[in-house]
Amino acid sequence: MLTDERHQYILRRLNESGVIKSVDLIESLGSSESTIRRDLAQLESKGLLLRIHGGAKLNATFGAELTYQEKTIKNSQQKKNIGRYAATLLEENDVIYLDAGTTTLEMIPFLTDTSITVVTNGIAHASMLADRQINAYLVGGKLKHSTKAMVGAPSQRSLMNYQFTKTFLGVDSIDMTYGCTTPDPEEASMKQLAIERASDTYFLADDSKWNKVSFAKICDFSDVTFITDKISTIHQPYLNHTTILEAD
């Protein structure tokens, strides 16, 4: 069996059970102990699992959320590619929601159709939309300083005034078992409401977001369409359960 096939199998088993023993992998894959040890080390280096005595467990760490500045510089070229592709999905007179993610921000330089209307909870997004003379609405509410996002009950009440043809969301973590998650329950609630009020929803996620779990659930994995920069081998098990679009 090829290395990529073993890695897919290991990740699939982890998504099913959360923990797996090395002896079970050796038996089921027909591989040597050294091969399995090397596979687990490689997957751990990518942040896809955590090695434990006698095996591995799902990497479901709930670390501190990155600041807006930290998110902006992380995987910037990948985010730009994803944003460019997502912008091609827009149609004339679309009414869309852009949440305050740094990847959704990368859509705005590629928005050329001024017939669209954009609703956002992102301060930076609203400013850039104004610079480009695009009709935009900024929802009110509490300003979350670390991510420059409007959140909380007032923001949710404001968002309930609108319906969208398409919603574009950022996401911190994607996992087949635990779904789409984010560190902040208030941001999760905003994303849930935006999904409910849209005909189509797209999550914009570079390859650092996959096979991870955060604190607050947004939705099930199969509820939305994903746009990513590459459909790598770590994403293959997901393809049977949802739609994943690949940015060129």
From TrEMBL:
Q: Which InterPro entries match?
A: Carb_Metab_HTH_regulators, DeoR-like_C, DeoR_HTH, NagB/RpiA_transferase-like, Tscrpt_reg_HTH_DeoR_CS, WH-like_DNA-bd_sf, WH_DNA-bd_sf
* Keyword check for Calcium: no
Report if keyword Transcription is assigned.
Answer: yes
Q: Which domain of life is it from?
A: Bacteria
Q: Which Gene3D superfamilies match?
A: 3.40.50.1360, Winged helix-like DNA-binding domain superfamily/Winged helix DNA-binding domain
Instruction: Report domain HTH deoR-type positions.
Output: 3-58
Q: Which SUPFAM superfamilies match?
A: NagB/RpiA/CoA transferase-like, Winged helix' DNA-binding domain
Q: Which UniProt keywords apply?
A: DNA-binding, Transcription, Transcription regulation
Q: Which Pfam families match?
A: DeoRC (PF00455), HTH_DeoR (PF08220)
UniProt protein name = DeoR family transcriptional regulator
Annotated source species: Oceanobacillus neutriphilus
